[in-house]
Amino acid sequence: MSEQKIVTLIPARGGSKGIRKKNIRDLCGLPLIAYSIIAAYHSKVEEVYVSTDNKEIGQVSETYGAKVIDRPGIFCRDDSPTEEAVSHFLECIECDVIVLIQATSPMIDSEDIDRGIDKFLEMKYDSLFSAVCPEDMLFWLDGKKGLKPANYNFKNRMTRQTRKGPKALIESGAFYIFSKEFFMRSTCRLGGKIGYVEVPFWNSFQVDSSEDLHNIYKLMDHQHE
Length: 225
Fold this sequence. Notes:
It contains six helices and eleven strands. By secondary structure, it is of the alpha/beta class. It has two domains: 6-131 and 170-223, Spore Coat Polysaccharide Biosynthesis Protein SpsA, Chain A (Alpha-Beta Complex); 134-168, no CATH class. A hairpin with a 2-residue loop joins strand 8 and strand 9. The model has no long low-confidence stretch (mean pLDDT 88).
């Protein structure tokens, strides 16, 4: 284990517009945020914190073992970037490395988090993100000059095994890892020497709408049959 103090921060404000009380909505018997807390606690992080402006979210988070940071309402507006929550958190907590986890990532796995931490430390990255690598998907960019293929040559399509375009990465959004030192200089979760850790496609699902909640419920319920 690294001598650096590694902690998890889960931002979870109370003012969700898409789904009322989204962060604590029941999903297969657990509040949504519980999945992120539990995954973090089973990883290599030392402490798990939830940053929130909502008393009920705080109480639920404490039930599952998280420590709660009371975030001022000024940092919880609809247009408040997550980086504001991180800055406030770092004013309150001493640490060296932050694992920023979304409260809306119920498929997150502690093993993925650990692989991210190991790679972050081994490669001495400033920041790292979880990514899905969709090898079977062909991407196009729709710019001012029209359509342009992003990760393959449509004139020489080839097979998936022999295709030699640039590797496409999609930020899963589930978690980000960065050093406190880097963030204090940049006030951004990504930058400097950036790395990524690949996670399974299914683990990248996020709950942003009622439809997402319904679909993930069906997927998780099927897995437990």
